[in-house]
Design brief:
Number of helices: 11
CATH superfamily of the largest domain: Rhodanese-like domain
Largest sheet: 4 strands, parallel
Helix content: 40-55%
Number of strands: 7
CATH topology of the largest domain: Oxidized Rhodanese, domain 1
Order of helices and strands: HHEHHEEHHHEHEHEHEH
CATH architecture of the largest domain: 3-Layer(aba) Sandwich
CATH class of the largest domain: Alpha Beta
Radius of gyration: 20 Å
Structural class: alpha/beta
Distance between the termini: 62 Å
Strand order of the largest sheet: 5-4-6-7
Length: about 230
């Protein structure tokens, strides 16, 4: 009876996590928050979701203690409750890749690699960065780059890439990375760069996967507050 009482009490607690992630939009919000803290307004815009619905989804995630909040002036910023949440999200995506053939089929349909070029693994990227001769560009929004980026990466948000192209030398190979394996930014960046005659490839994964491997992460310096 003691064992049954334990099971009856503990599994509903685990089910709280299951309920919280049993929504495509809430998974997307967790994915966005794995890039850095964001306001409700930013999450609503980036996930193309009405503010009211965004707030409701965040409330569920907060009740399951997957996200936390902090106040910044008049804004409330959301963040993942811990690195273990990011690892859980990564494991969930990996399980989906391994068990659901639809995942890779959808990814291949919507995110074809330009010219069939093989992506750069994170392990290969580390070697390339150590050797030099590669230009690493982060094509995520600037606030995500500031919150955390791969050391040595240059910030070139996708909307700015075309007008800033002359800043990038053709003398070295370019590697572009963004939010993760299912982020379209790096696919679009590499396809456009290759059309302009650059040697470019995308990283197979993004910053969350880089961080999960224990690799170092840089952050933009925070401005000093005026006393």
């Amino acid at each position: 009876m003691a064992t049954r009482d334990l099971k009856n009490a503990i599994y509903p607690q685990f089910a709280r996590i299951g309920h919280a992630v049993a929504s495509p939009k809430r998974l997307e919000f967790l994915d966005l928050l794995s890039q850095g803290d964001k306001t409700v307004e930013a999450l609503a815009e980036q996930a193309a979701t009405p503010m009211k619905n965004t707030s409701a989804h965040l409330r569920v995630l907060r009740e399951a203690r997957l996200v936390e909040t902090r106040r910044e002036g008049t804004f409330v910023r959301y963040r993942l409750a811990g690195d273990e949440v990011a690892r859980f999200l990564g494991s969930l995506q990996e399980l989906g890749r391994q068990r659901l053939t639809e995942v890779e089929s959808i990814a291949t349909t919507h995110l074809p690699d330009p010219d069939g070029v093989e992506p750069v693994t994170l392990a290969e990227l580390r070697i390339l960065l150590r050797k030099g001769g590669v230009t690493l560009i982060d094509v995520r929004p600037r606030d995500e780059y500031d919150a955390g980026h791969i050391p040595g990466a240059l910030s070139y948000p996708l909307p700015e890439l075309k007008r800033r192209l002359r800043e990038i030398s053709k003398g070295s190979e370019i590697v572009a990375y963004c939010r993760g394996p299912y982020c379209a930014y790096s696919f679009e960046a590499v396809a456009w760069l290759r059309k302009q005659g650059y040697r470019a490839r995308r990283a197979a994964q993004g910053l969350p996967e880089w961080r999960a491997r224990g690799y170092p992460v840089d952050r933009a310096p925070q401005p000093r507050s005026r006393s």
